[in-house]
Amino acid sequence: MMLIIPYIAFFAVLPDFLHFEDLRTFSHSMIGLTILVLMALVVLHFLFKIRRAQVLIASVAAGAHLGADWLFGHFFPLYPFSSRYESLNSFNTYIDIQAEIVIFSVAFVVFMIIFLSARTIRRSTELSNSEKWNVVILILPFLGMELLEAAYFLQNMATVGLGVSRMVLLIIFLTTILGSVILLRSVISRRR
Ligand SMILES: [Zn+2]
Predict the structure, then answer these.
(1) Residues flanking ion ligand 1, Cβ below 5 Å
(2) How far is the CA of 189 from the centre of ligand 1 (A)?
(3) Which of 35, 50, 119, 138 could form a disulfide with 6 if both were Cys (CB 3.0 to 4.6 A apart)?
(4) CB-based contact 65:12 (threshold 8 Å)
């Protein structure tokens, strides 16, 4: 249970770790993402002996990222064979921020339910050392990504100003960051 959140968190942002030009195209294509997810899973399995459920969660989370980018941006389904991109709505985050908030809120509620359930927290004391490292190794890059995104968001906000919806989004960002830190702390500061 405790390992579900890190797997969702890490694989949901995995494609965006490669957010530069062609690499972004690669990580946002079906083949590229499959390769990335497989590579990450092989490394994770080598380190931590992961289970089938984790493979499933990772695949769904990574797939959902492409789905979201399809909705709110674009992705390249057949790259490298074709650089044609697919996009359902060509608006970006700052123009249609309301839609983003709806999606974020749903994700956020799910996240919080898992996170706040007393069972999850209690389970953290039952994690093995290897599982503890597994959490850390997935949450740290996720946290880095969230910090970067929040910084980018704030920078943009400095030019367009702060509205109610942007405020909500900012709070969601900060809560994810705080949640990650709490999760890390609960894993690291655990006593045997
Ligand atoms: Zn993306």
Answers:
(1) 15-16, 69
(2) 33
(3) 138
(4) yes
Question: Is the distance from CB of 34 to CB of 59 less than 8 angstroms?
Answer: no
Q: CA-CA distance, 90 to 101, in Å (whole number)?
A: 17
Residues 3-37 have pLDDT tens digits of 888 898 899 888 888 877 778 888 989 999 999 99
In the beta sheet, which residues pair with residue 86? 75
What distance in Å separates the CA atoms of residue 173 and residue 190, rounded to the nearest whole number?
Answer: 26
Domain positions in the chain: 4-188
CA 104 – ligand 1 centroid, Å? 14
Centre of ligand 1 from the C-alpha of residue 73, in Å: 8
d(CA 51, CA 151): 35
